[in-house]
Amino acid sequence: MEWFLIFTIFFVDMTMYVLSKNCTISTATVQYVSACPKDELTWKKAAKTKDCESLANFAVSKGCVNNPSDFVYHCVINHWRNATLEVCAPTRYMQSFCVDFDTELARITENYKANCSLFKPPCPSRYISTDAYKYQNCYDIVKYRTTVTTDVTTKTTTAVTAIHQMPTKDEPFQAYVVLIGAALIVCVVFILAAILVLVFYCRIQKLKKRIHDLSEGSKDGSELKILIDGNLDFENQGGKDDTFQQGIQGDK
To answer: Under DSSP, is residue 230 helix (H, G, I), strand (E, B) or coil?
Structure first.
């Protein structure tokens, strides 16, 4: 049953991934923008306008961060790589991938479909999420995936990506439904497979018992045949003795 243990571990890992710690406060601060800051100066100006510091203590009370200074401004790509957004979120360290904000997990994550270490210039193998502006090629990914029709600014209150390309409020719910559906399908398949194995095992056991019974019956039959044959020989021998005695008496 080693494969059953592997399946169980995989299912638990997937469940823990979905239910892992997030910060719903960050989701409430998401604001789509046409572009992100290109340098440290414009980043600080945008951060001042966003004023994430006003929510920092609240984020601590909700368990999003331990230190208020860790709940800060970010301007990153979204998880689908088709929009840029501003958000107040806890800082995280990235490992060779572009920074994104995953609205389903409600947190800053690495986008594994955007390896910035391969860009020119490349990002380092480890960097903090608030340094996202240093790696503009991550933002350029959005330009190749969407059509933007607005002046480039560091701050805007409206989304500039086509509406049908923007993530909707239903997308997180739909993702959970898909994941739960897939998990249920896997469980059903697993249960059916277990039932088939059990039925097959029972049939094998019945077949073994039947063969055993037949074998015992054949053994008993052989012993009976030997006993019957022995009795017949004895009776035949007894008949010969009687005839011999009668012959002797006749001579007398």
So the answer is: helix
Per residue in 78-100, pLDDT (tens digit) is: 999 999 999 999 999 999 999 99
H helices, E strands: number in the chain:
6, 7
Q: Which two tokens stand for residue 158?
A: 């409206």
Q: What are the CB-based long-range contacts (under 8 Å, 24+) for 224-231? A: none
Polymer length in residues for the chain: 252
Q: Token pair 């510091």 is at which residue?
A: 53
Give the separation between CA 82 and CA 145, rounded to whole angstroms. Answer: 6
| Nearest one of 10, 15, 1 to 193, comparing CA atoms | 1
Question: Can you tell me the distance from the alpha carbon of 221 to that of 139, in angstroms, rounded to the nearest whole number?
Answer: 88
pLDDT above 70 covers a percentage of the chain that reads 64
Quote the Cα angle for 85-127-101, to 5°: 25
CA distance 161 to 147: 6
22-to-63, 101, 158, 219 alpha-carbon distances in Å: 9, 11, 25, 72
Judged by phi (left if over 0) then psi (alpha if -120 to 50, else beta), residue 205 lies in alpha
- Tens of pLDDT, residue by residue over 241-250, are 454 445 444 4
The structure's pTM equals 0.52
Residues 158, 33: Cα–Cα separation, whole Å: 7
Q: What three-state secondary structure class fits 245?
A: helix
